[in-house]
Structures are given as structure tokens and as C-alpha cells.
Amino acid sequence: MIPLAHIPTPHVDFAGLSPLIAFLGGAVLVLMAGLLGPRKVREHGVPLLTLVVLGVAAWLVIDQWHANKALVDGAIQLDSLSLVLDLVLIAAGVATVLLAWRSQAGREAGHGELQALLLSSIGGMSLLASAQNTVVLFVGLELLSIPLYVLCAAEMRRERSLESGLKYLIVGSVGSATLLYGLALIYGATGATSFSGIASAITAKSLSGDTLLLGGIALTAAGFCFKASVAPFHQWTPDVYEGAPTPITAFMAVATKVAALGAFLRFFDTALIGSHGEWAPAIAVLAAVTIVVGNVGALGQSSLKRMLAYSSVAQAGYMLAGVVVGTALGVKATTLYLIVYLLMNLAAFAVIVARERETDLGDSIQSVAGLGRQRPWLAWPLTLSMLGLAGIPATAGFVGKLYLIDAAVSGKYTWLGVVIVIGSMISLAYYLPVVAAMWMRDAPEGALEPAVAASPAALPVIAGGSPELDDLVDAPAAPARGAHLEVAAVALIAGSATLFFGIVPQPLFDLVQHVGRSFGL
Amino acid sequence: MSQTTYGWLVLAFPLAGVLLLCLGHRSLPGRTAGWIGSAAIFLAFLAALGALLTMQSHGADHRQQVSSLWEYAVTSGIDARMSILVDPLSVFMILVVTGVSTLIHVYSVSYLDKDRGFVRYFAYLNFFVLSMLLLVLAGNFLLLIVGWAFVGAASYLLISFWYRRKTATKAGIKAFVINVVGDVGLVLGTFFILGHTHTLEFLGSFHAAEAGAFSHASGDLVAGCILLLVGAFAKSAQIPLHTWLPDAMEGPTPVSALIHAATMVTAGVYLIARMHPLFERAPAAQDVGAVVGAATLLIAGTIGLVQTDIKRVIAYSTMSQIGYMVMGVSIGAYAAGLFHLMTHAFFKALLFMAAGSIIGAMAGEQSLKKMKGFRKAMPFTYGCFLIGGLALSGIPPFSGFFSKDEILLIAGERGGWRWILYGVGYLGAFLTALYTFRMIFIAFHGKPCAEAQELQAGHLHHAEHPFNPADGEIEDTDVGFPGPSHAIAERALPMRFAMSLLAIGAVGAGLIQIPKVDYVVDDFLKPSFATSALYEAHTRSGILIAGLIGGTLIGLAGIAIAWRIWGSGAQTATAFQERLRPLYTLFAAKWYFDEAIDLLVVRPAAAFGRFAKDTFERTVIDDTLVGGPSGLVRAGSALVRSIQSGLLRYYAAMIVLGVAAVGLYFLLQA
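Output (C-alpha cells, whole complex):
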């Protein structure tokens, strides 16, 4: 008989971990379901199962809404910030599942694989945003990144998709390595891996000017900036966003940013708050550079996805302002902006997905020309999304930006607030042309005529293969055309939420009220 | 239902009306739109009555109730709510607004019949009523500003309703611009007050002011109140922001009756009364209001004497009467000012409606020079005009007698330099009687003109070509111009109905507040002015009796002189005009206010604008400010795109460079 009883095991709070367990367990479940027999089950059952998993996770999150506790020996913090961000991630996940439901990516990569990778990526993001320990932080980061590399290349027969995945993998590895190196240096300087240990070491040993620590902070900041696509570490963003399947781009644009900024907030505002005076100016400069680069880069882009990629760079710059100030207001402002950012981007990407399926123009700005007359139910969400991203009043984007500027100004970074305003001004020059194209231009000739689809069999097999691929080759009909109901629903819900929270922002203020409570700011 | 629920209903019905008319504008046949619009406002009137009854069932201390529908943004430093304040003052206002509006909607159904913009007209009109109700029900500064601006926009839309008339569109723009000056004043004044009270809510602000948020004779408070007055002057057409109101007569006549006589232009009076806890702590601002009101009542009265356009005469009369109200609420005669607001709404709307009826008989012609002797042809219109005129001139027992005299009585009671206001007020009363009966004697008495004779013979005059009465330009009757039909009260039941009810109001409304007999308005409004130090103390008899008798005599004297000049033959009028040539010229040129504003504001602004456009814009703005940054942005964009080569090795290099730069910065910190 083996005496197990006296082995000291750490107390594991399974209730607190349950959302994470739901994500990762769900991923396994979905992967298995993807192996099930008939194609119909795979095509519709798997996404449905994923939605169920996400719904369960959402329930588990809401169930412990007021929790504020450390899990797994202080490695993970379950607090208002991680719960709110979990909810945002789940929303992004649900939208992505809906957008990918009948997408080419799902058919080519296999629904089971696609959704399982999506779920594990969400799991990684959730872990990253709640990490309270550098080791967990890095695990979370890789758990989010590796599935994304694969997802970017999910349309295996499209060269740009593969290119996007490969680029993301290589550049992403550089970013991860930089971050890891930075974390190692911080460990070397403070002798601690837990955030609280690092923080107390900085104050106790008055390390704030220490070379080793500052070197570590520099590399860590660079690594985070890479994930959040902050200039000058943003260059992968336009290429990867443009190449990746659009539902995946949507997911990357919103969810990655949520996780990266969540980790940014937690790491810099808890572990490194002791040397706030040292890192804040640097991050502020990075934010300003990002706002400028993102906004000028987006000008004159004819691809909507590329434009939104640059726009997401600029938006990351705005959100960094909340990190820079290192105040409770800053944390709230960034979190609030993440929520509205999610809504605005989902609306935009959903419309792009819909138009990609309806026309042959892909994600070119041409594809939405004349949309106002043709498909007002798609044109309105995109209009609201563009106006919201530009920060026009009566949209949620205005409220979010106002809050960020408020945080910047009251945190003594008024100049950064001014940069945000100037950035928004420039941004009108690329958001408004989209609106103009929709309402003031005519649809290009024959855009809606279904073109003769190239037979899937004729496509070159560039890499990989899957059971779905064989189905695809066998499938007699061309991929279904026409806007799908679920895609339009995502656009409409996200668009009307953008409008609603612009008029009634109070629920958002209430939602982020307790965020950052556990930071001790 | 609570009184605030009724308050929300008062807003909900016109909103529903607007939406219904806007969405259904293609499918509403005939006069349906007009009846829908009227019904929406009538339901709002019923809801206002509901609010009144529930409110009166509460004790005096519980009659001020605030209800918040949702919070717009309540966070540090700001509390923006969708909240309304239902108290005796706002209930008084919504009753007047919805009551008069209902009648004017009904009148319009006939008056704008066959106009191609019929549905649009009622959509605008409902929108106006909604805005006005929002303005008076607002429970905080934010919503007040929203209502204030909406009212200005609705007024613009309705003045320019016949949008192909150049004179109408110009008048609309003028009204809008001057109203925006007032909006700016209101917003800035709000900031001055918000800066000290830290709340947008009215009651909260007032409590803060009472608790000493402002130091004694605080400069900020005086500045804030004077800026509020700028808003009030622009909306209420007080000097020097009054020039838009006469031009606003380009709108359809019912619009003039509703917006530019009964409701919108009284918003300034309401504002001063509503803000009385602030104004009473800024006596300097109160004095500014009183003096400007007095000046307006006198100057507008003199201009009214010589105008020849019948609607413009009534418009100047409106300015003059609002001068009384502004003066009243600025010297603490709140109940009297608001009482006059109510009676004025009745008799002035009535006068406009009667004028509209004559204009209908003249086929659109508005000049008093061409009207003559309509007494026999239009007995009903004549009766209404006479009732309105007697009420306006302050002849007992008509309503204007009681309300006007009460304002002046309180001016006299407060004494000191306010005796000047008292004197000016009675001088104004004399002018009022004079210009009112000038209109009546010219238009209704004497030998009937051709149109009147035609009407007596049973046929309504139609002009050969429709034309613009302002400049005589020939028009058609398509959308954007008035429709082909002209309506007169004698032949349209809805018009007669509306005018009869208003005539009853104009005769009888004064009886609810007779000095020494009853004080209905005083007692009703008291809870809203509970904390006021100046609220009417009932009256010393001496000046009361002197005022009542003197006021009557002055009114009668004015009528008598008007008869002597204009009633007994055209020669006397011309003779007078010759003898008083300099005065006549001054009045006819409207005291040169338009020219003075043109010289002092418009021309310098235009010259500056030309300089800015030709010189400043080209070199500084276009070349330096726009050219510079936009060139910079374009160059930056090119740079960013050129770095974006698509080649991975450059990206990696860029990351290394970035890390190096960030690392260097941090190492320099060490």
C-alpha cells in the first residue's frame, strides 16, 4: 500500500480554474468530435459543440463574477480584470466560430482541428491575462501563439494564407524569445518569478535603477509590444492579417489584443509598478510612435483587412495610454476600450467576411461600394464600426477614447492625450472613405454575379491535407455564396452594440468598475 | 401613475407622432397626417392634465419630482442623466405648450390643406412640440441644452418650410445663426455654473447654490447668469438679438402663431424663472435682464407702429410683450411674468390666426396698405381679432389687462430705480393699444377693398399668379412654395374651432388671477419658487388701484388716438407721418438695428472672412497648416509602406533595431 496521504499537495481551487479547464477540455472534446462520421455532423455539429463549450465557460465566468482570489499557489489571479477579459475573449470566440462556420478555412483545415485550435488559443489568452507569475505568463503566451500560427495557415490551398502563417511563426518566435529573455533577466535581478515577489523585491532592494532589471524590462516590453502589435514591432501585422483567413484575422485582431494588453496591464502595473518612473516614459513614446505609424500606414490602403490591421496598430497605441499612466483609472480605461474595440472590429470583419462570400472582390474596398443601397443591413454595422473606430460621438468608440484621454490627462500624460486626438484626426482620412464608398458610390459592375468558381481539385496542393480536403475535392457544388445569416447576425449585433453603448455607456462603466481592484493601485 | 410617468408620456406622444409621420410620409392620404399630428399633441395635452391632477394631489412639499429614465454617463466629475423635472413650473409650461399647440395643429389642417409639403409640415411641427416639451421638462442642464438646440433647429426648418422662397430660406438662416449665438451663451453659462456646483441636475445645482457654492456676489455666477441671459435673449428675441423674429414671419402663419408667438420665444422667460435661485444670487444679472426687457418692450412697440406687413406688426408686438415678461421674471415677478406668458400665448396665437385668415382672403398678400374694410366680409375673423386686440391692449376684463398690470405693479412695489421700469411699462402699454388698433382700423374698417367686396359677394379672391408677399416674385404652387388653396376662418371649421377656443382663453384666462380676489397662478406656482426671497408678497392697495385704473385709461387713450389717426380717414395718418418725419423714419427703419448689426458684426466679420479666405487661408492654412501636416502624413505613409517590404528579414531586422532602441533607453536610465 502506497502511503499517499502525507504527500503535501498544493491546494487547487478547481472552481476558480473551471473556465480554463472548460476551454482546454472543450478543445479536446471538439477535436474528437471532428473525427465523427458524416460530413454534416462535422460541418455543423462541431461549431455547435464549440459554441456550447464557450457558453459553459461563460456561465462558469459569470458564476464567480465577484471572485477575487489567487489560484494555484498564487500563480494565477482570478479577479475582476481576468473575469471581464475572459468574457470579452468568449465573445470574440463566439463571433469567430460563427464567422468560420461555413468558411473555406473550416472546410480545408477540418472543422474539428480549426475549432480545437481556436479553443486552445482562447485558453492561452485567458491564462495570459490572469497570469500572476512569469512562468505561467510565458506558458500562456505560447499556448495562445502556437495555435494561431496554425490557424493563420488554415486555408492550405491559398498561398497568402500559408505565407501569413509562416511569417507569423518566424517573427512570433523572435518576439517570444525576446520576452523570455527579458523575463529571465528580471528573474536574475529580483530572484522571483511571481509578480508580487518581483514587486516586493524592487521596492525592498530599491532596484528601480538596476541595470539587470531595466534590461529585463526593456526586453519584456518589446516582447509584449510584439504581441500587441505596437510599433516598431508591428510589421508582421498587416501581412499576417491580410493573408490569414478573415474569421481568423478577426479573432487575432480582437482576442490577441485583449490578452496582450491584459498581460501588459497586469505585469507592468503590479510586478513592475515600483519602477513606473523608468518604464512609463518609454512606453509612452512607444504608444505615440504606434499611434502615428498605425494611422499614417492605414492611409491609402485598398485592402480593408490591411487597413484594419494598421488601424489595430493605432488602436493598440491608444490603449497603451491606459497602461502608461499606471493608475486605477488607466486600467479601467484600457479594459473599457478593449470591450468597445471588440465590438467595433467584429462588426467590420463580419461585413468583410460577408462581402468576401458575396463578391469576387475579396476584401478590397471595392467590395463594399454601393453597399448602402444594396445591403443596408450590412452597411449600417460597417458604418457604425468605422465611425466608432474614428471615435465619433454617439458610438461606443467615442466613450472609450474619452475615457482613455481622461486617464492620460489625469495621469499627467496630457501630451499623450493630444497625440490620441491627433491620431483620431488622421484616422478619419481612412475610415470615412469606407463609409463614403458604401453610401455614395455605386456597386461595381457585376460584383454580385457569382463567378465561375475554380474547381477545388484544380488548386495546387501546397501543404498538408485533411479528411475535409477530400470531401472538398469530391464536393460537386461550388462553395456556397451569399451572405450567411450568422455572419450578418454578428455584424448586426456588434454594430448595434457599438451604437447602444455610445448612447448608454453606463453598463460599460459599471462592468469595469472593479477592474484593477486587486492591483493595489 | 405618478406625475413623472405622465411627464414621460407628455414627451412620448409627440415623439411617436414624429416617428409615425416621418416613416409613413409616403402612405398617408389626404389630411390624415394633420389629424395624426394633432392627435399626438392632444394626447400629450391629456397627459399634461394627468400630470397636473396627480401633482395637485400631493402636498406642496412633494410637488417637485425628478425622474431619470437612464444614466447617460455618471462618473467622476459629471452626472449626465436622461432626467426630467416635473414641478408646478414645468407643468404650467407643458399645459400652455400642448394646449396651444393642439389648437394650432387643428388650425393648420385647414390652413395648409393642398400644400405639397403637408406631411413634412406636420412632422416638423410635432418635432417642434417635442423639442419644446423637452426644453421645459428637462431636469438638468444637459437635456435643457438638447431641447434648446432642437427648438432652434425646428424653428429653422419651419421658417424655411417653403424652401424655394429665397426670402424664407434667408430668414431661416438668420434665425438659426442668432439662435446658435444664444446656444453658445447657454452652454458657456452652464459651464460657469457646473464648475462650482459640480452637478448638471437643476435641483442639485440650486441646493449647491443655496449651500454656498458661490461666494457672495461671485463673478463666476454673474458671468454664468449673464451668459444664460444671452441664450434667453436670443430665443426670446430681446434686444440686440431680436432681428430674426420679424424675418421669421416668412414661415407659414400657424408657425408664426405657435413658435414665434406662443411657445418658443417664451423659452427665455421660462429659463430665467427656472434659474431663479441662481439669478437671485446675481442681482447684477437680474438688472441686466430687467433693463433689456424694458428697452425691448419700448423699442419694439415703436417699430410696430409703422410696419406695414400685418404679420410683422404682430411680431414686433410679440417682442414687446416678451419684453414685459423678461422684465417681470428679472425683477422677481415670476408668477406675474408666467401668467402673462400664458395669457399672451392665447391672445397672440389668436391674433396670428386671425391675421392668417385675412391673408387667406387676400390670397397671400400681407401688406396693411392693401387691406381695407374686412369687417363685414369676415365677421368671425373680425370678432377674434378684436378680442385679441383688446386683450393685448390691456382693456378690462380681457386677460392681458390682469397679467400685464401685475408685472408693472410688482415693478412699482420693488421701488427705487425700478419706477423707471414702471413708467416704461405704461408707456409701452400706450404704444401697444396704438399699434394694435392701427391694424384693426386699417384692415377692418373703412371702405372695403376689392378683395373684401369680392368676399362679400361670396367669392374668395384668388391671385392670378401666386406670388411672394415679401418681394412680389411670381411663384408656382409645387412643393417648396405655398399650395394653391387659401383658407379663411369663415369657411373652415377646424380654423373656427381653434380660434373660438383661443378667444375664450383670451377673454377669460385673466379671471383666474384677479388682485384681491383670487391668486390661482400665484398659489399654483409657489412650490417651484419655495426658496425664492422675491416671490410675490401680496400687494399694497395704493399702487394697485392706481395701476388698474391708470392702465385701463392708457389703453383706452391709445385706442382713441388710433381711431383719430387711422379710423377716421387716411388724411390724418399721412399728416401725422409728415409732421413726425424723423421719428417715423427711425421707427420704419427699425431703429437701424439690422444696419447696426450689419456694420458692427456682419461687415467686420465678412471683411475678416475675406481676408482669412484670400490671404490667411491660402498661405497659413492651405500651405502651412494643411499642406504641412498632410504632406507630412503622406510622406509618413509612404515611409511606413516602403518599410513594409513583405520580406521577413527586414521585419526581423526592424525588431532587433526596436529592441536595441528600447534597451538603450532603459540602460541609459540605469
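The first helix of chain A runs from residue 14 to 33.
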